[in-house]
Amino acid sequence: MNRNGKIFHNKMVYISNNPISYCVISTFVISALLYLFPFIDRSFSHLFYVHEQGFPAARIDVLRDFRTLASHLTVALPILLALAIGLKLLYPAKPSLVSPRFSLYFIALFSIGPGLMVNGALKSFWGRPRPVNIEEFGGAWPFQPAWVIGPEGLLNRSFTSGEAATIACLLPLALFVPREWRVQVAAILGVLVAAVSLNRIAFGAHFLSDVTISIGLMLTLAAALYRVIFVDYAETFADAALEARLTAFGELWAGRRAAFRRSIRASLAGAGAAVLALLGAQRAMARRIGASFIGAEAARGMGATVLVLLSSTTGGSSVRRLSQTTPNRS
Fold it and tell me: Are residues 175 and 29 in the same domain?
């Protein structure tokens, strides 16, 4: 083998042993190919298009149910892992239900990949029309190649595929099974990813470039996160270290929750005491007002009694004179 051949061979060995470089180069090659030859996207979508019917696969119930099932399946993993971490924080004395490093890896992958990278960045700034929306397939928008920012005003955007990105995040699961099963698990997951991606293309929702670039980006991110969490900073993100941090944070959180509950109870007790004091003051005031009213009525009654007695002893003349000379105080 000559010198150039050895250099090329060494580079290929390096790339094959460096999954990040392999994924980056693969994604770049796919992007360049579909950008330079955009007819590939249109031709592939034409396989599922019927004139005057659009994309009939989108109206097949089995395929629609498969899409729903796949969406729920992919979302279930990060939700369950987040729930496991939440339970650990609520019960810090108990061990984690799932490996903390495993949970951290996949939660970060789903959050950064489909969450921020695809739906947060690419779909927000690359206004590429979906196949069903372009003029060639009965829509109103012109075709845009991959990585070309489309016209403004389009809300339902195609680049890249969020569902393909989400299902592709399941591919690294093959790394966490016993080595003897990795090929089989990777093959099953690969078939699932391909089926979901083809389903989206058959619905006229995405081009071939949308799903392939999404998968390439997610694999690149998965390789980078794996390198950070399991290789470069393996000790920092070891299960024991993460378990200790979660336990400490859970205990701190439990203390703050207890202090918060105590403050709430104290506030409620103070408010209750204030309400009772106010009610007591109102009752006392009501009693004083009632006593004053009763006293006035009693005084009037006594005055009337005196007048009656005087009238009976003097024949009423003194009473009449007294009533005429006494000013009216009512």
Answer: yes
User: In the predicted model, is pLDDT for residue 157 greater than 80?
Assistant: yes
- Per-residue pLDDT reduced to its tens digit, 186-200: 999 999 999 999 999
Do 116 and 11 share a structural domain?
Answer: yes
Domain that holds residue 267: 252-325
Query: Is 330 contained in some domain?
Result: no
Mean pLDDT of the chain: 85
Instruction: Report the C-alpha gap between 40 and 145 in whole angstroms.
Output: 10
